[in-house]
Amino acid sequence: MANALKPLTPLGHDAPQSDTIGAITITENPNTALASLAARLGREAEVASLAAAAGIPLPGPGQSEAAATYGAIWLGPQQWMVEAAFATHEDISAILKPIFGEAASITEQTDAWVRFDVTSTTLPALFERLCSFDLHKAGAGAATRTVIDHLGCYVIRRTDTRVTILGPRSSAHSLHHALTTAAKALS
Amino acid sequence: MSRISGGQIDRSQTLRFSFDGVSYTGHPGDTLASALLANNVRLMGRSFKYHRPRGAISAGSEEPNAIVELRTGARQEPNTRATVTELFDGLSAQSQNRWPSLKFDAMAINDRLSPFFAAGFYYKTFMWPAAFWEKIYEPIIRRAAGLGRLSKQDDPDAYDKGFLHCDLLIIGAGPAGLSAALTAGRAGARVILADEDFRMGGRLNAETLEVGGTSGADWAAQSVLELASLPNVRLLPRTTVIGAFDHGIYSAVERVSDHLAQPLPGKPRQILWRIYTKRTILAAGAIERPIAFENNDRPGIMLAGALRAYANRWGVAVGEQVAVFTNNDDGLRTVNDLQAKGLNVTLIDARKGDEVIDSAGRLGLKSITIRRANGKTETIHVSALGVSGGWNPNLNIASNHRGRPVWDDTIAAFLPAPESIAGLTCAGAAAGAFSTHAALTMGVAHAIAALADLGVTATADTPSAEDAPLNLTPLWYVHSGKGRAWVDPQNDVTVKDVKLAKQEGFVSVEHLKRYTTLGMATDQGKTGNVLGLAVMAELTGKTIPQTGTTIYRPPYTPVAMGALAGRARGADFKPTRQTPSHKWAEEQGAVFVEVGYWLRTQWLPRNGEPTWRQSVDREVLQTRKSAGICDVTTLGKIDIQGTDAGAFLDRVYANNFASLAVGKVRYGLMLREDGMVMDDGTTARMGQNEYVMTTTTANAVPVFRHLEYCRQVLWPDLDVQLISTTEAWAQYSVAGPNARKLLQKLVDQDISDAAFPYMACGAVTVQGSRARLFRISFSGELAYEIAVPTRYGDAMIRALVEAGREFDAVVYGTEALGVMRVEKGHVAGNELNGQSSALNMGLGKMVSRKKDAIGMVLSQREGMTAPNGYRLVGVKPVNPAESLTAGAHFLVKGATATADNDGGWLTSVVYSPHLGHSIGLGYLKSGDNRRGERLRSVNLLAKTDIEVEIVSPHFFDPEGERLRG
Amino acid sequence: MIINHPLLGPRDSQEFIYLGDAALIHRPDGMAEGALERFVDYTYLRDNPAGSHRELWYHEQGDRSWLVVTRDTTTHEITAVEMARDVARAEGRSK
Amino acid sequence: MRYSGLRVIAEALTGHKGWKPAWRDPAPQASYDYIIVGGGGHGLATAYYLAKEFKQARIAVLEKGWIGGGNVGRNTTIVRSNYLLDGNEPFYEFSMKLWEGLEQDFNYNAMVSQRGIINLFHTDAQRDAATRRGNAMIMHGADAELLNKEQVRSLYPFLNFENARFPIKGALMQRRGGTVRHDAVAWGYARGADQRGVDIIQNCEVTGMRIENGRMLGVETSRGFIGAKKVGVAVAGSSSKVMAHAGMRLPMESHVLQAFVSEGLKPLIDGVITYGAGHFYVSQSDKGGLVFGGDIDGYNSYAQRGNMPVVEDVAEGGMSLMPMIGRARLLRMWGGIMDMSMDGSPIIDKTDTEGLYFNGGWCYGGFKATPASGWAFAHLLATDQPHKTATAYRFDRFAKGLMIDEKGQGAQPNLH
Predict the structure, then answer these.
(1) If you measure CA to CA, which chain A residue comes closest to B584?
(2) Which CATH number is associated with domain D106-179+253-341?
(3) Which of A3, A75, A138, D74 is the most exposed place for a label (fewest CB within 10 A)?
(4) Do the Cβ atoms of B602 and D350 come closer than 8 Å?
(5) Whole-model pTM above 0.80?
(6) Per the record, a Pfam family (chain C) (predicted)?
(7) Does residue B857 belong to the interface with chain C, where contact is any CB pair within 8 Å?
(8) What is D20-78+182-250+343-415's CATH number?
(9) Helix, coil or strand: residue A120
(10) How many CB atoms lie within 10 A of CB B459?
């Protein structure tokens, strides 16, 4: 539906911010819609098959997975964060609810998070200065929640050279400061 | 010039530096100590108590004497060891704890008066008159005490933290550490090799010994090159592992920039690494110990191994005429190496009965007196004396978990207790294996064993090296005249002090330490502890292990506070949370206030409002008169779904929730299991199995944690799912008589009282975009809370302000919010203090006893239901011109201000522009029976005492007609 | 400390919040006879052993699971980590 | 032997030959009237006051290791009486008054130094709470002042007033607060008790309690059975272990609290400073070390050692409050085991076993409480009546809903 209200990115701009520091690029990415998906008690199998039918991957603990339309990140036991393009899925929970009916609890999460995509050929060296998530070991698909400068964040290894960080939206500036400071210390 | 040939310094480059204002030169590879010695400077400091002249006794981090103030200005670093300070061009250092100068220190008078300053003397005097302690004695003591000076300026450098993971951590890059690293590295394991020195190799750099047919130093250099070429090996020079913590976590400090004049732009001064490892090999070598004899503390008297190290590694001769006093064969190495360098060396071998019994030289060693086995004494002129009483395995880290070291008679030293730290083994000199051959083979063997545990196979390849025994015959201190023989040089603890401690019953090693301050100096007794223990053992006729052991706590060497704090300082101490209206509010010149990590608008001054009160009064009056808008996004929002969500709420809230209809909101009171109020807020039923709970801003996280606990631990089979949506929605309160008119301009659906009555909730659209609407009120006005996805929050506040223009609506901040809630008698933070029950808050009736909700049972305890307990009351000054103070206490008229008469206190106070005077909420004993009573509100801190009247907490619209309007 | 999460493997304990003795699983029935006495005991008294201790930890900065960790309070050695929900069920908790 | 300046001079001139042991090293007798279990500050103070103030005899103190080796020897040496609640403040003020006369009383210089303590506040709510507390303190006969930002600045100009994440708004000051040389407190009480005939028996661990039909007969120890009419247990940190010998479960958990000292520095900080926006408090010892601490590690522990997260948390607080300490170095850290009680307040009470008395649950408050705790426990042991300042420290306060919860955290020990 046409939207009268003009959105702002988490860093408070009309357009996403991108910083390149040495070999590291940190880009704000507001183009993903997010919703949490949690299986209702006793309906886990049903949720699995409905998800499969709808092309929604349900990765295991510590993992993320991308499919054609949807991607997903494991949040906790029987709970996932479903990703889709914001342009087509702004009202993502309204789209997902009919798929799962009463078999799952679905909650919009899109604007609860700031998403930074970090690209670099030296990601492990950067993350050594940020958190205890060991990117030397964690290959593409690995995803976890951990702490970066006192902030609880999801770190998702998309590829060898690209990581997505989901952090609390209200602290977008603090998180951005932490990321750029670490990048500068390495450059 | 006492530079001699050889050494691992780059003579092609010259570095300029200064000490106490005098300029000198040195070379890359020098430490401050080696460069000073190369310039014939032996006097580097003064001792703590007696201000005795002191020079370096070691060539490592165990140094107790040669500590200086390094750098100047804001970067000044007190108590810095010259022996491990890597020389850089422009280095500037000052001696410390002396006045007026190092050579002429007035405080050296203490040395003359030393008999009066025996161990523990201060416990026995300075008691009369009592008042003199703070006024006279202590200020003098404090001024005299302390070592170096802090600049009192903010540290200008940045510090980083980091996290490393490995299979095998090796601490120390001497022969054992290097051979272990080569073995594990070649086998493909993830290895971290850390060494505190800027040049890896350990003692090999200080010796003339051969490894695999080449010089030890060259073998070390080649090994480091090979390790650097292995992608699975991480070399950390200039890195001190400071302690072993639980489950294979080690903490290490990397000195990234301390060898530079100042850090490069963007770079930290140091990095605190948290290392997660599966196995650890401690190969930290051994620390030589002295033999105590009279005046054994003069500049020029050193540990024999250090004297050798300065000659071999740094090409420095501390003197032409040198003596060596040893009780073991390692001391003989010093004799041989120095003679090979062309120095004239006298050997005093204690094993032959020869002893050094005294020394002379006011500011530096001039001569020593020797007593030969045959009893003859002679005095010889020397400017350097090397002393070796044996070597103590450097087991520091291995005892961090309080595992007691075990005594070994063959080396007369403590060995690390086996299994003292899970996953850690000790190799080489740290394990008491002193020959190079033993160190190399042990390093290899421990690496193979550690990797075998991890299922990795490694192969042994050990180079050849010397395997000479130590041949030590213990000698701890020389029995001779009346003079003082130093055990702990920095703290000036002498053999006499140990004797006195024994005489007064401070025999336990912990008592000895605390009474004499033995081992409490900046070197933490690395050189002196075992010696002190040995002296006590001899005095008590016990063995050393019977007398006690010494274990070490982290950190291994002192650590800069900045490194432990990392980036978290100043404005970056904690993250900042911004509300969706932050950008707009900034443009309006809003005043912000910290609420937890949040920054909230406190008030919005308009031009011509010189005081905050005027702004807040306007915001309140205008809201009550027309309409006001407030960002309430910071309240916690928790999405609760599932077929048992209603039953779940009925257990976590004290009041009834089962009956809440879809599309309705209800106020909920949450108790802790101990019956006190934990939190409050509203919960809206958005659908059959879908609720949205709001919490106070402060308790959003604890409440969420509590709900997860309830659903996972207490009632695991309830079908309930939770997720926080606090940040997903930008939520604004719109309050006041015109609130509906204002909102209706933006909301596409009918929000008339009929269509959207008080306490209704539901999904709506704002000019087409998704939103949630709740008809709830904190202000007591007709009010709504409207929520839109956060990215639209900025646009929404602008839209609301625009829509409100025709009503002259205001945006109000937390101050006005507070005024209006006190006017309505709503409890908030100051009342929700964790010490108050529902009954205290006047909400006792909300606690249903018909269901088993958390906190219900214990809230019924006699002490919490006593009629004379605290009750929430409203308070107003009898004289409207007088203002109340939060925190003031209640007294009845005529009562003295004593605890027995204390009636309670004012929790919250505001100025009510609506009533035109100050009002407050308070907790008053038996408060609900005391309406209309006149009491005094007394603030003894500000010496105010005003008459107040106790009234209903509901100052404004008690019947609540306005919010239903 | 390192807590070996049953689903996520070894995690730094800094990601967790500690609550206390896992006996807290056994919340008494508030409607039963003698509930007050049982609640006083449940809420306030602890074995507080020097040795093996079963305790509740919450993975707040992780997957938000409550865990039952068996840890020696004298050495900090951890010998077992279980999902609290499974333990609670196994010990008779349900709705 | 009496200590004095003259004595020190005389001994100095005669080679310190005359100094006698500070306390005897007696073998345990078959039985005593009073056995105090625990040779820490509280146990030694109890024995001292039992003998001196309550004129009791046949007293022994049993210590499993060396006296003063528990929390009295591993704390941050702060003394203060700036408590809020009626159950606590009279007791801690009584303790403060005893500190003020202690050294002359037991003839030992424990360096009681009242250089003042400030508790900083950073929000209006904290200021309101400080006002409430300050008034309560004065009403209980203690001293308190509310300082504004500029008054704080004039005392400690090096605090972070600019560019602070949580700006300093003011402080609650107690000028009579300060520090005491902690080891000397144990030694002074031990010496004073010993001089009054108390047997201080070290390396004597209590391994059991002999109780017959509800009556205490004595204690089994590593040095054999020792009979006693009354047994007082003051073993903070090990309370649950020892009271388990009497079949008791206690309302407390044992937690590790780390403390820290920096290298010696020339004078920087005169009094005690407590940060209101982070876990950090600091003072400077007469020897020159910055003595500081923060929060407990937060998990049950008897290990007397902690982990890095708390160390880093404390350092972050310190650097945020006083950025000048970045180049000061942490020299040593240690851990003490606290009895963390269910409401953050202690217990000094009889038990259901006749002749068995308990003193514990001090949380962080143990050191500053030492004199009053000893006095009040001695009072209870000698008279079977609680001392008037300690009437609230009862076991049954939890059953009755009369908790003394200064922090309002409820029944979770690691939050107090």
Answers:
(1) A12
(2) 3.30.9.10
(3) A3
(4) no
(5) yes
(6) SoxD
(7) yes
(8) 3.50.50.60
(9) coil
(10) 9
